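Table S2 (text version). Query chain:
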Amino acid sequence: MRLNSFDALYELHKNLKSLLDLRSDELQADEAKSGPRDILVCGGTGCHSAQSAEIITALREKIADAGLEDIKVVQTGCFGFCAQGPIVKVQPENIFYVQVKMEDLDEIVNSHLIGGKAVERLLYTDPRTKEKQKHYLDMDFYKKQRRVALHNCGIIDPECIDEAIANGGYLAIAKVLSGMTQDDVINEITASGLRGRGGAGFPTGRKWSFTKTSEGSEKYFICNADEGDPGAFMDRSLLEGDPHGILEGMMIGGYAIGADTGIIYIRAEYPLAVYRLETAIAQAREYGLLGKNILGTDFDFDVQISLGAGAFVCGEETALIRSLEGNRGEPTRKPPFPAESGYRGKPSNVNNVETLANVASIILKGADWYSRIGTESSKGTKVFALAGKVNNIGLVEVPMGTTLREIIFEIGGGIEGNKKFKAVQTGGPSGGVITEVNLDTPIDFESLKAIGSMMGSGGMIVMDEDNDMVEIAKFYLEFTMDESCGKCTPCRVGTKRIYEMLETLIEQKGDLETLEKLDALCRTIRETALCALGQTAPNPVLSTMKYFPEEYERYAKHEVNKAYAINPEKCIGCTKCARSCPVSCISGKVKEVHVIDESKCIACGACFTACPFQAIVKP
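Corresponding structure-token output:
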């Protein structure tokens, strides 16, 4: 089917809109026992790894066997509450089941779908109140969220273009092509205040304007899907849950700058996202929404996918462009900027996935609507991957200006195991730690920068009292050292030297002079490295040295005990700890108290995990 006009698209949208009627959160018919239902099952990568694809297949078979013809099982994108997956949501009752397993399906079908009674044991339990909650809107995790970029994730089947159109997909590009000039589009995006969500926060409208005014008839619009921060999965979830939304954002951007070719640069480690993008592109071409004469106009635009090898540095736009051209992924000096000379030497615009996920909504609802969300300098919402020592791990989208305290202790449900909060790392390996003193800092570009961290792409790793901050810094430095492209000496050599100094400290072979050298080297690299990867690589070290100097000093003075110990009052001599120890530093006979040789202990924690009696004492 080819949509050759605006009227054809609008008519299709009107006819398909009823597809999503049962998924409205406003229905909440708790006692519904019969009639049409949609069962939404998370189909993101995290839930796929926990058998959600098999759950979908089995659920369809069981429903068919029960003769429940009015019930449709729909694979969606990520619901966001990743730690609780696989998630199964039953509409119109709006019942939210968590951590569903294959063996739970018979009870869902028989008790709920046939008997009309929710399966209580599969409902979410609030970690603070210990109460069961049926509806996801009652959960602290969702209460303060506002989904703009993620508005389709968990609602539509990402592999079905009809569902995307039913929920407003491609109506924004139709609005653009039916009456907006290139400048109109750029002005609307500029007025909205949308800034790049890849980390730098550069105003999107200005970026488009630079490329549009650059000389040349051949231009490229590039989507940066090379998400590489440890613990970050925002872009992956957007691509898996709403690929058509990203394509539409690229189309609008392509029109605005005068490009007829779009390129999605995505890491090959995202096979599900790649598959769904390929599916979406094929479907959009079939409907005439990509290709020549889109919706009967003279606008031509098509999209191709380029797979990256997973180099972190290729998240930087000039390194990404070099990789696209078949060269080694290394950053280049600017100017010239990609807007002047980018892919194949032609004017090129690069935006990341989350930035593009906001574009269609801005065009449809207006710049004023979007600019009313957020803060004065940071408009709209931001998606974060909340992970680490927090109860509610998952994908979070909140208005800019929401505080760290709200995200961690309200949306995140507080620290796991009721332990004490210690720090949160924002901005991934390029960011820094934020301590309890700054928990009430509003999340926006300027506020985070002011306290020594950064927004980054949106990774947010929470740490508790047990985390060793020198070890944390070493973890991030190992990552940036491995990911350095090697082009400039400060990054290639400097990050390795920082890592070696941290190793020296942790092995308690350093001294106070080592700390002075470490600080000086970090500041030198920050001033002299070629690109943002090298310039920001020292941030985790500098921020942890600033906020936790005593931990560095303890290592420098050789006062750290890294060995585990055994509590003789709890040890029953089961030998499980000894059998799990990789360096054989635990001795003791069966049914006798065991002992750890602290001089040999490598603090791997294997014994702590293996002991069923909580007899192992952490260092």
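Notes on Table S2: The first strand starts at residue 37 and ends at 42. The chain has a mean pLDDT of 92.
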